[in-house]
């Protein structure tokens, strides 16, 4: 019995010393993490002009009502008027374009990626200018500008 009590008395100070040194490190580690997080947040706040790729953001931008509502808006004749006569466009034409969703949810920088019927480019540009505000992408909890690629198919028969 005396041996077990003596053994316990010898080990107890080592455990207390070991634990106290870890607490010091933990406090420093927490402070370092807070500094890192603050720098990361500050970088996101100050980087308002950068346009992010969809793979770089935490939360992707969304259109109110979803993709189906977006496509309906782009194809709706009431949005930008009736399609003009297009002698050079036959069948169906798929227009692929990039757009930037800004931090306030507005759309800018529309660029066409695939040549289709050029008359339809002005139609898509007009329709994108009349879009409702998007819910912008988020990075570290802050809205950021994001580039999206979309397509719309016009049936010209």
Describe this structure in words.
This protein is an alpha+beta fold. The chain has two domains: 1-46; 50-155, TolA/TonB C-terminal domain (2-Layer Sandwich), CATH 3.30.2420. 45% of the residues lie in helices and 22% in strands. It has helices at residues 2-46, 67-75, 77-80, 118-129, and strands at 51-52, 92-101, 107-112, 137-139, 142-155. Strands 1, 2, 3, 4 and 5 form a five-stranded mixed β-sheet that branches. The mean pLDDT is 77.
Topology of this protein?
Elements lengths: L1 H45 L4 E2 L14 H9 L1 H4 L11 E10 L5 E6 L5 H12 L7 E3 L2 E14 L2
Parallel strand pairs: 1-5
Antiparallel strand pairs: 2-3, 2-5, 4-5
- If you consult CATH, what is the topology of the largest domain? TolA/TonB C-terminal domain
Gross morphology is: rod-shaped
**What is the C-alpha radius of gyration, as a whole number of Å?**
29 Å
What is the CATH architecture assignment of the largest domain?
2-Layer Sandwich
Can you give the mean pLDDT?
77
Task: Assign a percent range to the helix content.
Answer: 40-55%
* Low-pLDDT residue spans: none
The end-to-end span amounts to 99 Å
Total domain modules: 2
Biggest sheet character: 5 strands, mixed
Beta fraction: 15-25%
Number of helices: 4
Structural class: alpha+beta
Number of strands: 5
Task: Give the CATH level 1 class of the largest domain.
Answer: Alpha Beta
- Could you give the order of the helices and strands? HEHHEEHEE
């Amino acid at each position: 019995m005396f041996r077990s009590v003596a053994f316990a008395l010898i080990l107890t100070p080592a455990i207390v010393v070991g634990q106290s040194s870890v607490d010091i490190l933990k406090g420093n580690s927490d402070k370092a993490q807070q500094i890192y997080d603050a720098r990361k947040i500050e970088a996101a706040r100050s980087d308002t002009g950068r346009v992010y790729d969809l793979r770089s953001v935490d939360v992707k931008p969304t259109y109110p009502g979803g993709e189906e509502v977006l496509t309906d808006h782009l194809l709706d004749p009431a949005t930008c008027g009736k399609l003009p006569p297009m002698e050079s466009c036959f069948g169906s034409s798929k227009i692929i374009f990039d757009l930037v969703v800004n931090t306030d949810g507005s759309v800018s920088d529309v660029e066409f990626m695939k040549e289709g019927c050029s008359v339809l480019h002005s139609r898509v540009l007009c329709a994108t200018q009349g879009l409702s505000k998007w819910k912008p992408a988020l990075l570290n909890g802050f809205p950021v500008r994001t580039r999206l690629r979309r397509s719309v198919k016009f049936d010209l028969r």
